[in-house]
Write a structure and sequence with these properties.
heterotetramer, A: alpha/beta, five-stranded parallel beta sheet, two-stranded antiparallel sheet, B: alpha/beta, five-stranded mixed beta sheet, binds thiamine diphosphate, binds magnesium ion
């Protein structure tokens, strides 16, 4: 069955590649901007970590930008997402700002979590970003619960939960998918299959090739998408979001993608678990270069305009990093704050 | 508070749940077999009254059940979810300890989780090692949640209401053997505040701090001891987190002797925290060491004969008090 | 997809019905004896419970006998099983004796667990019965581990784990199936789908109709079998055991079956969750009556011989019940025994 | 015992694991990223040495990992399984508490489970609320398992060996910040028996009972206090279950003062059990209440500034001792 799955994957990926240009200029540019913002943020964050300036370290999303961009393009601030330990890209694509993000990574007071969460718990309730999560498989039960609330409160909102190929083997993911399908919840399960969980290959974690095949076991549709193609992710998500908003229930979208750097940081732990060639092969399908080729080919913009995008993003990042380093650490007196909500119990 | 009538603990829970579902449109009741009223019957008739949207069954997926509560609470609901037996906490301890208890703090206070978790603890019904445990010590050790252990019908209703009105995650740990015990329970709405101990009996010679059903055993023991001329004060903390240290210390400063009693395994149990606090804060007032009564260091045995020997009761308490007073 | 699944089920069930008579006299009689022993044990145990003579209560297997009989017919004492809260039938089919079983149900010293386990933890390490389990989904990780040991120690043994339709939604089952498939373990997952988990119907717990459909998500074969036909279960298990013993890895066998009595005991809690008609419909397909019809039709035995089987089984049960009631309770001094193994740590 | 050499804690663990894998053919080492040596490096080179059959990766399935250990142990293996961070215990507490810890008892002694679980506890590395916890209190409360908390390299190796040779389920709780700390570690085979405390420093004025890394903090504090003329005895229980009550009580009877220190949250922590036992068994010898040093009642914060304020250290200990002695 792995074989047939393989075939399927190839098919879908192929399909995706052709689609590209179908989208409007506005959307293509939005997808591009999201990805550039993520890429530039991560490269700077990674550099800071390698310079030992980021306490506790971080997990980089570089290479996987197309997934966050393609999915989040369909969401608004009333929609929720739950993220993973690799969560910067999700927050940025959901509208996260660089200043409170860098400040959080550095443990400073103006950070999104006032310095209490850091990279692994970065979140913004205002933006509907219900948190990166240090627990693999930690986000799916929460997203399922949020999706339930959306239905219960008769909102149009959708809850999207991101998880990796490794997370797919956690019991919590199984329980959440089954409940989401059972209650027909507006919940979208986006599996970011980058082929590895830390230093374990997917083949070292499961027999199947397409995690999307598990969707059938819950009675929900499962699709495999080229996670290196933002437009393909965008189109797959469009159907899933439509389905979710109209009471059709959950969807499992598996995005085949790749992380360019180590599990942690850039150089990481120097474990020997994949080849340089493999990394190079995937980089040839870089999602940002791809969309830039598509945009220029389709005459949606010039190289100069693309350069301008980078310029302004780089400027924002520079300012944000400066802001973060200038920002104060939280006062030790804040240690015991935020454990409980002190509001009077409501009568 | 309106008129009261004699009600068993199980019906008092039912009363409290109806009160909450009536007053809070954004609350719902979910768990295994709740449509059928729960296997313990505390939800009998509630599904019929409030319907499929407000009261529903979940698959046997405890991680999902807690996630349902956490996620729905984070975005505007006030969920009440049920973990059928406290013994099953292990199935969802990550969702409880790493998500529910920490989300607000990790997010710098941005998240508010008004979620209530109901569960059922205790032995004495020959249900063996996996359906008889008292694991409040696991929960009390977790900053970010509150843990109520109602010992009687009045509290069972009042703490269920208080828990569901609280804007924090609250566990209400009911007790199986108490389900049938009756007492006067007011109709309508009232709260038993979390973190306020109750002095169940005043005394001058010794204070027994007893958790959940052990309060009743302590009261029985106090009667027996009274006949021996020993005046026992019985304190029911009612919630182990927050824990009402002041009321306990005040009592010890009066009686100069303390015994802590819970049904949970003594070793590593919450009684250690209570005993440690007492000697820490009332050291100069103590005429004797704080003693603890709890289950021995083994799983709950099935055989009635063994379980009888396992679970602490009034006899165990009387025996320990006599030793303390060299009677 | 439920629809197609439905079709599949019907197909498989139909197929199973015809098969019946194919088996040898020896096997047919062995299956019959196993089922009669279970049925008679359970009816007496149930009666005792209704007479309030069984501490803590018990869960009856009546109606589901074909599953335990058909599966266990392929196992020997070196093979392991893990059971559920509804475990009497599994132990009997694995070779359990009535005396230590009734003694355990009554909490007496000569019980299989010396009175410490009771119905919900009844077990026999000698027979490879690794325990009934009070935790739904508790047995699957253990069976997976036992199967791993069989492979690691180069044994021919197979580990079979039984679980219900409700248990299928526990995360532990998901993790165990994936690991069993990943390591190609001699592990067989037997789902006893009796349509209900306590008072919740399967439709109230999941969208899919055939739990066997989940096997594909782990890369293991999944089959649906008529759990009211011991010969069908026998034949499906034959292939799975063969596969397991020859290094082919795990199989998921879903047996459609039904419990005649309440979740707990006979009258149970009197919850209103299924119709009498439904119960009667299933009883028409009683596995014991069916095999007796088949045996007589095939001339494998006479009604008189069948009656003789009941007589001797009833006699054994009477003796066992008497034995159990005469047996002493464990001495309170045993309370603190068996918590730890006191053997000297091995150098 | 053969020659020793200076080795960091992380390599001492490695040494111990190799010893066991060499001497026990039916043992194996399994967990997440163990082929790669574990993310902490304590298994570096072991896969290369012992091969795919003895050392292998597991999916991210903690319930499965514990089940692998329990099931394999029940039928003849001596598994060593790893739960990467102690914070993840919640993912498999049911398999630990209801299966691993109770199986032998529920089966009337028929099952023997020689399984060892390795895990990593502790903060101080800015890993925030879900990668920094000390949850030994959850485990100590469970009859049926043993819990070792090695505080130095010598014990890390010796207790790993003792745990794997024990015929019961044993948790070896390592500490992250201790991984790099070096000391003399003998080559070859030796055991540090479970349930035997070590007196790390003799003293006459006060006894500090410190768990895991807090032992080092206690030693530093003792140095400082010595300069103030206070003679501190430092006791390292080494395992919290079984707990070596005798050694602790003997010391208190000599020093008449006790301080308990652990990195875990103070409220509901294992320190309560220790304090309760001390005052229970040495009441008449105590000149002051048993004090406890532990983490405050909040999750572990990420910000370095906050985490510094959160984790107890030598300063916290010195401060508390000074208060106890009114210095
Ligand atoms: C419950 C739990 N188990 C293990 C870990 C350790 N861990 C952190 S990230 C990771 C790998 C996750 O792999 P995957 O889900 O594929 O996400 P990726 O890192 O590839 O994005 C592991 C094992 C954890 N954080 N939580
Ligand atoms: C972890 C856990 N959750 C819930 C329960 C309570 N419970 C006991 S049996 C049962 C129903 C199980 O249904 P199923 O798996 O279909 O088995 P069946 O009873 O139908 O044989 C439930 C919910 C439990 N024992 N363990
Ligand atoms: Mg991955
Ligand atoms: Mg069922």
């Amino acid at each position: 069955m792995s074989l047939s799955a393989n075939k399927k994957t190839k098919a879908v990926v192929a399909a995706a590649d052709e689609q590209g240009a179908g989208l409007s200029e506005e959307i293509m540019k939005a997808l591009h901007l999201k990805m550039v913002r993520i890429r530039r943020f991560e490269l700077e964050a990674g550099r800071l970590m390698e310079e030992n300036k980021v306490p506790g370290g971080l997990h980089l999303y570089v290479g996987e930008e197309a997934v966050a961009a393609g999915v989040m393009q369909h969401l608004n601030n009333e929609d929720q997402i739950t993220s993973t330990h690799r969560g910067h890209g999700h927050l940025i694509a959901k509208g996260g700002e660089f200043k409170p993000m860098f400040a959080e990574l550095l443990g400073r007071a103006p950070g999104y979590c006032r310095g209490k969460g850091g990279s692994m718990h970065i979140s913004s309730m205002e933006l509907g970003m219900l948190g990166a999560n240090g627990i693999v498989g930690g986000g799916q039960p929460i997203a399922m619960g949020a999706a339930f609330a959306n239905k219960f409160l008769k909102r149009q909102s959708v809850a999207v939960t991101f998880f990796g190929d490794g997370a797919a083997n956690e019991g919590s993911v199984h329980e959440s998918m089954n409940m989401a399908a059972l209650y027909k919840l507006p919940c979208i399960f986006v599996c970011e299959n980058n082929g590895y969980s830390e230093y374990m290959s997917q083949a070292n974690s499961m027999v199947i090739v397409d995690i999307a095949d598990r969707a059938a076991g819950y009675g929900m549709p499962g699709v495999v998408v080229d996670g290196m193609d933002a437009t393909a992710v965008y189109q797959a998500t469009e159907q899933a979001v439509e389905r979710a908003r109209t009471g059709g229930g959950p969807t499992l979208i598996e995005c085949k993608t790749y992380r360019y750097y180590d599990h942690v940081g850039m150089r990481g732990m120097g474990k020997n678990y994949r080849t340089e060639d493999e990394v190079e092969e995937w980089k040839k399908r870089d999602p940002i270069e791809a969309i830039e080729r598509q945009m220029i080919a389709a005459g949606l913009c010039s190289q100069a305009q693309i350069d301008a995008v980078y310029e302004s993003v780089n400027k924002d990042i520079e300012d944000a990093i400066q802001f973060a380093f200038d920002a104060p650490f939280p006062d030790p007196s804040e240690l015991l704050e935020d454990v409980y909500c002190e509001s009077e119990a409501r009568k | 508070m309106t008129e009261a009538r004699s009600l068993p603990y199980v019906s008092a829970i039912n009363d409290g749940l109806r009160q909450i579902l009536r007053e809070q449109d954004n609350s719902f009741l979910a768990g295994e077999d709740l449509k059928a009223g729960s296997v313990f019957g505390f939800a009998n008739g509630i599904h019929e009254k409030f319907g499929d949207e407000r009261v529903f069954d979940t698959p046997i997926s405890e991680k999902g059940i807690i996630g349902l509560g956490v996620g729905a609470a984070a975005v505007g609901c006030r969920p009440i979810v049920d973990i059928m037996y406290m013994d099953f906490l292990g199935e969802c301890m990550d969702e409880i300890a790493n998500q529910m208890a920490k989300m607000r703090y990790m997010f710098g206070g941005a998240a508010t989780l008004p979620v209530t978790v109901l569960t059922m603890a205790g032995g004495g019904m020959n249900m063996a090692a996996q359906h008889s445990q008292c694991l409040e010590a696991w929960l009390a050790h977790l900053p970010g949640i509150k843990v109520a252990c109602p010992s009687n019908a009045y509290d069972a209703k009042g703490m269920t209401i208080a828990a569901a009105r609280d804007d924090n995650p609250v566990f209400v740990v009911y007790n199986k053997l108490s389900l049938a015990t009756k007492m006067e329970v007011p109709k309508g709405s009232y709260e038993v505040p979390l973190g306020q101990a109750a002095i169940r009996r005043e005394g001058t010679d010794l204070t027994i701090v007893a958790i959940s059903r052990m309060v009743n055993e302590a009261m029985t023991a106090a009667e027996e001891l009274a006949e021996l001329g020993v005046s026992v004060e019985v304190i029911d903390p009612r919630s182990v987190s927050p824990f009402d240290t002041d009321t306990v210390i005040k009592s010890i400063k009066k009686t100069h002797r303390a015994l802590v009693a819970h049904e949970a395994v003594k070793f590593g149990g919450f009684g250690g925290e209570i005993a440690a606090q007492i000697q820490e804060l009332a050291f100069d007032y103590l005429d004797a060491p704080v003693m603890r009564v709890g289950a021995p260091f083994c799983p709950v045995p099935f055989s009635p004969e063994l379980e009888k020997a396992y679970i602490p009761d009034a006899k165990t308490i009387v025996k320990t008090v006599k030793e303390m007073l060299a009677l």
